[in-house]
């Protein structure tokens, strides 16, 4: 058995190790509960052997009797049963959906046989002012790691680009992944037909089942030819194998594999260590060696990055404690999905879902406890009579607990049905992509069963134990007291409303931040510019010229340009950037790098601070730069920057700066504005056309552009979108978080109010005589309503006082990830207080008014 693998101060447990710990924990819990519950029976059975047989014969009839009595009691208190059942059904529904989401997230990449020994390699670089961690590596790093690093069993690069695939008359657009021959040896994507070593040849191609069926129907595709075009001519490739479709819980996704050497820029970059663009994975012979791998390969890193290291040293960067400027680090495969370095959103979001599920379950289970204890006043004589007739304490506990078990089982069944019905809506709202078949997983079933047992023990076990221990004589005399001053009930109500109020606070803060992100001016025209992604069926030069000819004379079109990178996330789903570093005046300058067409600044609505934009009138502009304000500040300011020569590449002459544009937010507002440079070079790489339209009737303008596109690029799919839509998609995570908070807050407050309503009904029923006396003595209805509501409203106010600092701390931590953020205002918590108190008052006052208006004569008739 493989034990825990220490990595960078953390311990990673292999799957089988975690599974055994999990199963052992469940077994120990069940064994402990069984021994505890059956201790007295086991002792009696060991002492009196004859009694064992006698007891066994009575078990089934006794259990059947318990269920009958439990059902009758539940039916007798239909309102309270309905409150409990409705609350628990809602809680189970939410918990099941969230549990499936969490389990799906934590199952990422578990299916790989070699998951314990496969790692992604990333760079850690000591810059002048910070440490940067980047997932991409240079192309030649693969061979260096495989041939020179100790203990590397296999290695592969992974990079992708869109391509057109053609078989006969059938043509489809696909995202092709380029990998090395070790790829299918390292990762478990089972081959179902064809070669078992399918990527040995340079012209080999591997398809997934779905794509193979799309291209070849039911025919066997192995050995057949597929024509592929990325940016140039069509090239033939032979299908060497078909693999199973990639599971949804795979970090690496593909439909088509080709050898890495077929990637477009391979020949230009295959030996360049200064150009990092590929994901790099390695498999170690001994996973335990990962802890020392970084130190063992440092000599190799210093060898190949010597020039870059020298540039960083000249720029004033400080080495780490071991004197290193650049390090190659390992990230375990199971961490790739979560790690921000590789584009993951971290585990915090998953932990948040787990916490919300627990909160909702706690609120619903609390209703059980409070209602059961409140009903104890009405069932006291029943319990007392049972004890007088000889009922044992454990029998009473089982009898009372069986009522909770029935309700929880009914709620669980209803929760499963509701979860099944709501799953499509849930997937659409939260982009979860879940399947109900997840519940067939034995581990998830074990988690669900364990949680169900714990919930029923908490919700029904404690009240049953308390009621079974009532003093018989006090009960029969009518002097029953469940607890001093209802401390437990009040504590649970405070806990419920603290969670609900905190969720409302988080909802308001998340909504304010999301609204701030969407409405903040970005420094360019995002409302009136349409972005059109180009697919592989379109030749850029031809398409943009035809579009200019078609729309150039239309007064509704104000400008047409293009770039290699989109603004925000377009309808094609892409969002990327390019970086370039070079030395200038003994300083390392790192800038975002964008290739654009003429009229880009005008089309995007940017503002020139100094110099001019690119112009066809100047032939030298093909080797010139336009930079942003942040880049100009490094060079002494906008006016000083214009005219300076930038040695961006050792193979090309320096590029003069001809213009400076005012800073604009070209990335998410989580980041500050970084240096940015525009160039006209390499126009063949432009992948997005931008059309600026007039401010009036934007839907009609979109229709105009779509019609023109269908004429200039027939057969190409139009994926145009306004830039404000693109920028909104950058905040899908924030939008999803806001929706989760809203849903959880609404559900939490509804369940808590249902419980409060039921508790208020029973609490006021116990004060009927008191109210009757007060009315006879002259108390008004208003005074009585305030009197009856005050105790509960005090608990709600206390809950808000507890929730406010907790919510403020949590959301302030969340907002700290944003370079541009709101500041949490005091009115947010005041509004939450008004909402919570108002809802609670409406819930309680309904019963209070009815009790206060009751005829006091009826109340005093039964007065002893």
From TrEMBL:
Membrane protein topology class: Multi-pass membrane protein
Domain of life from the UniProt record: Bacteria
An annotated Gene Ontology molecular function: transmembrane transporter activity
Subcellular localization, as worded in the UniProt entry: Cell membrane
InterPro entries: ABC3_permease_C (IPR003838), MacB_PCD (IPR025857), Macrolide_Exporter_MacB (IPR050250)
Main location: membrane
Keywords: Cell membrane, Membrane, Transmembrane, Transmembrane helix
Transmembrane regions: 20-39, 82-103, 349-377, 398-422, 442-465, 491-511, 740-763, 784-809, 829-849
A cellular-component GO term for this protein: plasma membrane
Record-annotated ABC3 transporter permease C-terminal domain positions: 355-471, 743-851
UniProt keyword annotation of Transmembrane helix present: yes
Pfam family, any one: MacB_PCD
Domain MacB-like periplasmic core: 81-298
Protein known as: ABC transporter permease
